């Protein structure tokens, strides 16, 4: 009989404000059993508005935002967008909200404002039947919905980085919906001898990349949906390529054309992948196994010793994450982490590890293993393998990120 | 009797296989529209190493030098391809120096002259992309190759001569990996 319930008249009178008060009453101790203790003071509720009813927004107390990455401002004086990083330190689960998904443009681009009714995808080159698809056409075809991360090749930790947004914020994970490129290529009929394809965007520079045809036939998605709604303009509205596990630049935005060819075309973006050493070229395609602890991470503060669930993300261009390990003593001993929630190929995978902090200075690290048996390396392991100076990492940097916990509970970048 | 059944099976199987291969050749859903050859040509701006997609037109370094100023290239890339806000387009090292030591300069490091043409055509000038004529792109390509000692000043570049230009890098660049599904990113590399 301890809990007091507001009567129906009060409930109707209070409207939206009482929805909060009701929950409070159910858990409040007997001492709060006064009308004042149960009813939020006037003004402490979110008034409905036409806009909020039409398209919701987060609480004003949630302030997590993206930041320009790599020292170049976005937007710049001309309204151009360059690289923008995701606030991984505040992330939970595996999906990055569309509004917080990282953004990268090759040269600092205007974001094109494309009318989807006018947009066309042309597939041609070494095919039996070149075809043009409207957005309506594409939505008629069998679709897939898959979780995939996209990571920029510039997602490289440095000793100067102050938090996980700066060290790792150029990766994000979303649920993508669209038609498999293999479905479209079947419609067109692939000619014998075709071995590469060029994908091209509709933005002002018509960004283009060459990719192996084997990838197109495997798992590439021509995506129009992202996290349950149309792909956002910063992500390529109305249509983008999603090339699972490859460096982000291959996931061509504003996709307007796919051409099947019989040789590497060396168009626009491809020139940046040119290397002297075959090893480095190979490492410029598929992303290696990579993980990072998002809590606790640099810039955060532990209030004191005691229990913490360490939480982080793991992903790999090689497929599914099979195992994640966490070290709470600077990499001397490694412990199996638990996998939380959904595990999907080339998708962020959430891991957790239960930790009792004794209040002493220490270092946290994580490393992961993928379905191909690839292991996330330390910087020392990479330096030894390639016989290069410590910190030099060929291809996309997938090395272990250390976070240093000081005895006052402050967390700092262990590379510093 | 057994052999008859066997023969029937073989015939049936053969028929199914034939059916399957015919199906694989035709479209499954009948969705999408066939573009005209004209439409494809208008959109097809990807220039491959053999230059098959190059449009008619021609230009020399001399024409290019003038266009380089007129079209605003010099304003961003510097008067002679150096010291501008945009990337350098001219190397300073002795042309005999190893190409990889000469910096990341497109008209020097690119393995194909067609890549230079493709780049200018699709992505330049800044904010006025797609406004250059084919003649202008040939001329600007010739200018950039000339100031880097790749071609002589009077060489005419067109759809036939451009793909034949010998670039300084030759074949001294890494070949591309043969990517296959479910394979590690680099053979022998455990990470």
How is this structure best described in words?
The complex is a heterodimer of chains A (416) and B (191). Chain A starts with 7 loop residues before the first helix and ends with a strand. In chain A, the strands form five sheets. Chain A has a five-stranded mixed beta sheet. Chain A is of the alpha+beta class. Chain A is globular and about 65 Å long. Chain B contains seven helices and two strands. A two-stranded antiparallel sheet of chain B has the order 1-2. In chain B, helix 3 crosses helix 7 and helix 6 packs across helix 7. The radius of gyration of chain B is 25 Å and the shape is globular. Classes of the chains: A alpha+beta (416), B mainly alpha (191).
The N- and C-terminal alpha carbons of chain B lie at a distance of 61 Å
Estimate percent helicity of chain B.
25-40%
SSE ordering of chain B: HHEHHHHHE
CATH architecture of the domain at 56-164 in chain B: Orthogonal Bundle
Strand order in the sheet with the most strands of chain B: 1-2
Shape, principal axes of CA atoms of chain A? globular
Number of contiguous helices of chain A: 10
CATH topology of the largest domain in chain A: Sulfite Oxidase, Chain A, domain 2
Global geometry of chain B: globular
**Total number of helices of chain B:** 7
N- to C-terminal distance of chain A: 58 Å
| CATH classification, class level of the largest domain in chain A | Alpha Beta
Which regions of chain B have little confidence, pLDDT < 50, spanning 5+ residues?
Answer: 9-24
Number of strands of chain A: 21
- Assign the CATH topology of the domain at 56-164 in chain B: Cytochrome Bc1 Complex, Chain D, domain 2
Main sheet of chain B? 2 strands, antiparallel
Average of pLDDT of chain A: 91
